[in-house]
Amino acid sequence: MHAFVGGVVVGSSARRGRRCSARMGLYGEALQAAAQSYFADLAILHKYIGIPAEVARIEHPLLMTSSVALLAGFGVKLGFESRGSDYAERQRSLHKVLMASFLGVCALGFGGGTLSYAMQQKEIWKSFHSQSALALLVLLSANAILGISRIRSLHTAVGVTACLVLVVHIATGIQLLFT
């Protein structure tokens, strides 16, 4: 059976799927090009301010290392300790504050890492490191929603998955730092 939709004869769902994914590919490429241009302009501004290239290269890793060590490290520790503890309510509230702060810092770090890539004249969002950062942001956001809805077992599972993605992200970041 065929239907006439938007000036195009649409047949099987396979053809619709191919057409839809091709359209999404075009949108993705357009978003990629726009973001590349935007972050390239920010990189020019960054250089104009007078920040040395080596400082620009290591500022993202240093800032993110400290936030991961402090915010995520203590947040995860408190999250696991709050399960069955005498001080569980206080630990949970501190866990919420630390992990919400970590989510915010990660969102800013995603922008900073993208800017770092642009300053090094690399294509943004193409590396596994960038993709793992995006996956981490999605997992942390989903986990925040699960924490609010009090689905504890799923919140823990997604949290552990986010920790594993964070380890992979750190490993690929260290690899990029020395290449």
UniProtKB/TrEMBL annotation:
TM stretches of this protein: 100-119, 131-149, 156-178
Name used for this protein in its record: Cytochrome b561 domain-containing protein
UniProt xrefs under InterPro entries: DUF4079
Pfam families (alphabetical): DUF4079
UniProt keyword terms in alphabetical order: Membrane, Transmembrane, Transmembrane helix
